[in-house]
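Long-time lurker. I teach an intro course on protein structure, and each term I like to show students one example going from raw sequence to a predicted 3D structure in token notation. This year I'd like something fresh instead of my usual example. Would anyone be willing to generate the tokens for the chain below so I can use it in lecture? Attribution to the forum is fine with me.
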Amino acid sequence: MVKIRLRRMGAKKQPTYRFVVCDAKSPRDGAFIEILGHYNPRTEPKTVVVNEEKVKAWLAKGAQPSDPVRRLFAELGLVPRGFVPPKKAVPAAAAPAEAAE
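-- Reply from a regular --
Happy to contribute to a lecture. Here you go:
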């Protein structure tokens, strides 16, 4: 599964973050596929810079945003507030086994 999440950058005790597309199994600061923008929570107001075209393209391809990313994207209007991605359907072969129990 591909996820859109935050990657921590910056010096010690001075965090900034990048929005990255990566495999769900990769570590927080590990390998990523593409950078979508950056986020600085330390400025007033908080700085959020995102390439909206790339974000919409990745969401259309099925990338799942993490909870903090979903909240930030909702503030920007990229996803509706309370957006919950659809769950994957249970394969037909697995459904009768669960019903028999």
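Some talking points for your students: The domain at 2-83 is CATH 3.30.1320.10 (S16 Ribosomal Protein; Chain: A;). The helical segments are 52-60, 67-76, 94-100.
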